Amino acid sequence: QEYPPSNKPTITVLGGTGHVGVTYIEEFLTAGLRTRILARSPENVGRRFPQAEVVRGSMLEQDDVVRAMEGVDAAFLITPIGGNNDPEPELRAARTAIAAAQTTQLAHLIYASQLLPEKPTGVAILDAKVKIEEMLAASGVAWSSLCIGCYMDEWLGMAPGLLRIGILLNPLSADLNFSFTCKQDVARVAVELVQQGRTVNGTLDVIEPIPRTLADVAELIGQILGRKVVASGSWPLLPLMRMARFLL
Q1: What is d(CA 173, CA 213) in angstroms, rounded to the nearest whole number?
Q2: Nearest of 243, 59, 227 to residue 161 by alpha carbon
Q3: Residue 172 pLDDT
Q4: How far apart are CA 190 and CA 126, in angstroms?
Q5: How far is 97 from 76, CA to CA, in rounded Å?
Q6: CA–CA gap between residue 65 and residue 100 (Å, rounded)
Q7: pTM greater than 0.85
Q8: Angle, alpha carbons 86-13-75 (nearest 5°)
Q9: pLDDT of residue 7
Q10: Banded model confidence at residue 124, pLDDT cuts 50, 70, 90
Q11: Does residue 231 carry a pLDDT above 60?
Q12: Can you tell me the distance from the alpha carbon of 187 to that of 54, in angstroms, rounded to the nearest whole number?
């Protein structure tokens, strides 16, 4: 759907100025959404994204999030991962975003979730997201949760210098199965929801339906590059990282 410039939907991005979120901002701008970013260092973010509106503040402070949400059509929430398996930073960010959405009567809160387990695992990054979806469902806010697997582009960007010589660097076994997702695909689903003015009030799965091993991924990359690529698998990581210093 094409919008005249004055009527293009506006989306606020919360938690999007780190390594993971930058791709989402780029895709929202490319799709033509008017994009507002909440950032603690607005000068730096503004230089990187001059097309966006940047608001100074923290996603953990409700007054800041309220200012970022006022007058927009949707907000996209990426919760921060706590250190030492601590779920509290994620839960606090979600509570703040939900309270701000209630205050501003936000039309749509879109949450970047993850592949959710059926029962508690003790792993904060998974269990926190289950709790956040429960909070969203009970909040009365119009919401959509996008269920995400392992980011394929993160794996491919780990050591591009080694990839150029045919090595897909990863310390994990090349035979382990992963459920992958492309960040651009997640962003495009969010854009489509915003442009259509549609909320799910539940979860959308944005995970590739076919699980792949790292060996499978290496083979696919090899087909694209036209030469053999192998997954490093359980090779000692330290020697590879020493090699990478000369190749990156």
Answers
A1: 9
A2: 243
A3: 79
A4: 21
A5: 10
A6: 6
A7: yes
A8: 100
A9: 72
A10: confident
A11: yes
A12: 19
Distance between CA atoms of residues 68 and 53, nearest Å: 10
Chain position carrying tokens 């792993």: 123
**What is the C-alpha to C-alpha distance for residues 94 and 136, in angstroms, rounded to an integer?**
9
144: Cβ contacts below 8 Å, ≥ 6 apart: 108, 109, 110, 111, 190, 193, 199, 200, 201, 202, 203, 204
**Residue 82 and residue 90 in contact, taking contact as beta carbons nearer than 8 Å:** yes
Which DSSP string do the residues of the chain spell out, in sequence order?
A: ----GGG--EEEEES-SSTTHHHHHHHHHHTT-EEEEEESSHHHHHHH-TTSEEEE--TT-HHHHHHHHTT-SEEEE-PPPPSTT--HHHHHHHHHHHHHHHHHT-S-EEEE--PPPSS--S-HHHHHHHHHHHHHHHH---EEEEE--EEHHHHHTS-HHHHHTTEE--SS-TT-EE-EE-HHHHHHHHHHHHHHT---SSEEE-S-SS-EEHHHHHHHHHHHHTS--EE-TTS-HHHHHHHHHHH-
Distance from C-alpha of 159 to C-alpha of 244, rounded to nearest angstrom: 7
* In contact, 52 and 105? CB cutoff 8 Å: no
Residue bearing tokens 């897909």? 168
